[in-house]
Amino acid sequence: MEAVVETLVEVRSNLIIALIVPVLIKEGVIEKIVESPKTSAQIVEGTTLNHSSLLRALHFLEANSFFRFEESTNLWHATERGHTLAGEDAKTLWLWHFDTRKLGFMINLGELLYSEDQNLFQKIAGKSGFEVLNEIPDMLEKFQAYMTFLTKLNSDVVCQAIDLKDNMKIVDVGGGAGGLAIDLAKKYPEKKFAVYEIESVVPMARNNIEKHGLTEQVEVLPGSFFEAIPAGFDCILLKHIIHDWPAHRTITILKNCRNVLNPGNRVLIIDIVVDRTDKRYKRATLQDIYVFSDNTGKERTLNEFKEILSESGFRLESVTNAKEDDIIEAIAI
Ligand SMILES: C[S@@+](CC[C@H](N)C(=O)[O-])C[C@H]1O[C@@H](n2cnc3c(N)ncnc32)[C@H](O)[C@@H]1O
Predict the structure, then answer these.
(1) Beta strands 75-78 and 67-70, pairing class
(2) Could you tell me if 176 and 266 are in contact, meaning their C-beta atoms sit under 8 angstroms apart?
(3) Number of the ligand 1 atom closest to the C-alpha atom of 148
(4) Ligand 1 pocket check for 20: Cβ under 6 Å
(5) pLDDT in tens, the chain (333 residues)
(6) Going from the N-terminus, what domains does the chain have, and what CATH number goes with each?
(7) Which of the residues are catalytic?
(8) Which residue has its alpha carbon closest to ligand 1 atom 27?
(9) Minimal-distance CA residue to ligand 1 atom 2
(10) CA distance 294 to 130
């Protein structure tokens, strides 16, 4: 095949995979095939899918190495690649990333290349990505499930790398459903934690903390980090918060943090530090486009972190690698 066509086939196929797989996940098709090889009649049974259309999708996914059709038995098998589409984590990831309402916004991604201070949601809906999410409860839930997945991905390494030293009261600002605070509370049973979140996320965090039996040790406080950070804490965690926003808004958040800390207290920023020589570079650039399109956010280099920190009354103390993330330790001056 000519190179130009080969590249196009690959890219178009990926696009179609992104549109088809979530439907098969929702209809339980993937789980069925992964559970044990099945005929297409067995696969379609109990779904609302059309049999012959489903067959075409299965053949397309077979050509893309997710399934294998065994002609002698009429059975569909899942390949190793097919197995990656099964299970709760796969469901969380695929149903969030390829939700058709989200894709409806993403179709305009190219438009963003014409400016640096626009994001998809602002451009189309006139509000930030988080504001749009807050108005659609099932999408907010899908998003928080995705964030909980990301937290789980490297929580052991992050918790290991976070040294809370003599800090006794720690607040996880924008702490989502509470995953990090819960894991840290288990590591440090003598310390008190709080999750600071917007009103709509508070019940999710409270439920989660209750499920882990940690209500005495971890509280949930409602509010906006653009307005203020609650006082009375000697360490502030910001996980996947700074990368969500453009520089001037990160400075507002960090200055609000600085306002409630004493000199010498710390902020721990958990985000990736972009480095072109790092093996995580490809993911960092993908994530960069993602946060740019959602909230005009940015993945930052070490120098860019230094700049926003010094503008906000902090100095960078250390950077520790924590698998998918880095922990950027900053000290209030
Ligand atoms: C990318 S998520 C990170 C969540 C969590 N820290 C984690 O790593 O899983 C960003 C979080 O910031 C919260 N957030 C957005 N705007 C906020 C605001 N103005 N004040 C407080 N939290 C906010 C969102 O609700 C969301 O949970």
Answers:
(1) antiparallel
(2) no
(3) 9
(4) no
(5) 699 999 999 999 999 999 999 999 999 999 999 999 999 999 999 999 999 999 999 999 999 999 999 999 999 999 999 999 999 999 999 999 999 999 999 999 999 999 988 899 888 888 888 888 889 999 999 999 999 999 898 999 999 999 999 999 999 999 999 999 999 999 999 999 999 999 999 999 999 999 999 999 999 999 999 999 999 999 999 999 999 999 999 999 999 999 999 999 999 999 999 999 999 999 999 999 999 999 999 999 999 999 999 999 999 999 999 999 999 999 999
(6) 3-87 (1.10.10.10), 150-332 (3.40.50.150)
(7) 243
(8) 176
(9) 240
(10) 8
Contact 320, 288 (CB under 8 A): no
Is the separation of the CB atoms in 230 and 169 below 8 Å? Answer: no
**Residue found by looking up tokens 């438009």 in the block:** 111
Establish whether residue 147 lines the binding site of ligand 1, counting it when its CB lies within 6 angstroms of any ligand atom.
Answer: yes
* Contact 175 CB / ligand 1 (< 6 Å): yes
Q: Is 198 in the pocket of ligand 1 (CB under 6 A)?
A: yes
3-class DSSP state for residue 188?
A: coil
Alpha-carbon distance of 272 to 279, in angstroms, equals 12
Is the beta carbon of 176 within 6 A of some atom in ligand 1?
yes
Closest C-alpha to ligand 1, atom 1:
240
Atom of ligand 1 nearest to the CA of 226: 19
